[in-house]
Known about the structure:
It is a single chain. The protein is of the alpha+beta class. It has 13 helices and 20 strands. It has helices spanning 6-12, 36-42, 56-69, 119-127, 145-151, 158-161, 228-240, 283-292, 303-311, 326-335, 351-361, 392-405, 429-436; strands at residues 49-51, 73-76, 93-96, 103-107, 110-114, 131-133, 172-176, 184-188, 204-214, 218-225, 246-252, 272-279, 296-300, 339-341, 343-345, 366-367, 369-375, 378-383, 386-388, 408-410. A hairpin with a 2-residue loop joins strand 4 (103-107) and strand 5 (110-114). The longest helix has 14 residues, at 56-69. Flavin-adenine dinucleotide is lined by residues 30-31, 74-82, 85-86, 97, 115, 137-139, 143-144, 146-148, 150-155, 199-200, 204-205, 325-327, 330, 443.
Amino acid sequence: MTYPGLKDLETELADIPKANPSLLRAKSRDYYWFSPILKSELDGKNADLVLIPETREQLVRIASACARHKVPVTVRGGGTGNYGQAVPVQGGVVLDMTRFDRVVHAAPGVGRFEAGARLLEIDRALRDRGWELRFFPSTRRHATIAGFIAGGAGGIGSCTWGQLADPGAVIAIQVLTVEENPRFIELRNRDALKVLHAYGMNGIIIEVEMPLAPCQPWIDTIVTFPDLMSASEFGYALAAAEGIAKKLISIHDERIPPMMDQLATHVPTGQAMAIVMVAEPQFEAMAALAGDFGGTVSFRRTVAETNDAAFGTNAEVTPLYEYTWNHTTLRAMRVDRDFTYLQVRYPAHEELRIIKNLKDQYPDELVLHLEFQRRFGRVFVSSLPLVRYRDPTRLQALMEEIEAIGGQISNPHTYRLDGAGWKRTDAPQPEFKRIADPHNLMNPGKMFEAQTVLA
Ligand code: FAD
């Protein structure tokens, strides 16, 4: 799609750094190819121009020029989303925010960061002060704080601290509107929900203020179990054990470890696996609990080794969290391209029963992988099962069958926010969109309702 105003916009913004045209394709992609359906829908959707501003003044000029020349703008952080959130489906400008990467300020319990700050670098900066982000996605290395806010949900740390949408998880978000005369708007506490998980359609996030957790001496461990159900029962018990400080409880079907390169050697064939990050002084409490469910610790790093894996420079040593959440999917797909995945959660106290049903009913089509969280005062299981993909019709039928068994699906095979089930945040987002993006120029095409920019 070309826009009549594009040439004038380019001339007006000629002094702002931009990506070489050879990078247009790379800067227009994310990990949507996890889904064969999204791959066929989104391959070839490219930006016309990628701008990489360095100052607030340049950002304001870009927002104003897009509004005046009626050119769409899709904001981009690390480009690690996996539903095509950052793909400019209607072309126009991609706005790369990665030059805005400063810690604005940090104090006990709170930090404020520029939008393009990468999560690993935020934690690196906070560590010496004894604080850390409460939770981060497994893409911590590349993902930005604003990309997480606008496109992510939870991750490593969610077994203690819940998800972004939960009360208190975000303190404030500052956005810039896309209007002829752009305005900075500060949204605090509940108002932040107006922008949360909105796929960059409700204003350009400029800064984010987050609550922090005290740093713990975390260690990476692997625990093996005779089967998936005993590993899952352990996961549930550990998530419920408030006395044990933990950062990650990731449970894997016995078919997963052989696909996880370096990890495979630590898990005997045919055993299910738990990847656990626990505070080092509480390792023994965790191991004893694992023993109650037939678990054996097969691998354990020291605190220094765990920190080195995350923050060090040796690419050979991988933090264990890079085998969890959607990194499990990524690694399995590298071994077997026939896999795709689903996102399923479960009604309270029904989780283990439904998981057993899924395991029994789909012994070949599903390979189960669970991530334990703690939300709203209870254990919360979200699972990212690997699926042996056949075709779109079968995938749709499988989702309906899982819902009939009691699972709740959030469909990762759509790039439309309003087609994705429980991914959408319950907040007055449409009202705020009218304020932040009155011309419907931000990331158009990501909602069934409302948005098409007229060329
Ligand atoms: P991008 O992909 O660049 O953008 C995501 C969305 O945010 C887009 O819609 C974009 O337009 C918008 N956006 C970006 N910056 C701004 C801004 N400044 N203002 C307004 N909108 C903006 N997600 C999780 O929640 N938990 C996980 O554990 C997790 N694991 C993953 C593992 C793998 C292997 C992959 C591929 C993805 C995973 N994800 C996970 C999804 C994704 O990595 C995260 O949500 C991540 O936080 C996205 O950050 P990003 O900077 O890469 O965002």
